[in-house]
Fold Helix-turn-helix transcriptional regulator.
Amino acid sequence: MYNGQIIKQLLVEKNIQNKELLSYLGTEANSSLSQIVNGNPTVKRLEKVADFFGVSMDVFFEREKPFKAYPSTHGDNEQQYKEKIALLERLLEEKDKRILLLEQMNQLINSGENRTNSGQTK
């Protein structure tokens, strides 16, 4: 949510007078500053304010709810990931065993066909 009071804080922290900011924005009346601080300034105007202070626009906004990291990116699920990785590794081992068995069966079939074929040619 927009917090225009941050503009006032920045003015105090940087020891800048209101009129300097208003001059940069191309306006002179203190009521204009009040509108920016207490109202909902346009994005264009807020961008100019951010440029004046050398900050990004998100400085003027506060989250209503605290940021909470997406659970799947946090360490809480590390054990689940380890278990899934172990399962995938076991599945890969099983796949490799099946491939080896199929290759052996294929060799046996091919060697049997060769014997049969060599016996017929004589």
User: Anything to note?
Assistant: The CA atoms of residues 6 and 75 lie 34 Å apart. The chain is about 65% helix and 0% strand. The two ends are 93 Å apart (CA to CA). The helical segments are 5-13, 18-25, 30-38, 43-53, 78-121.
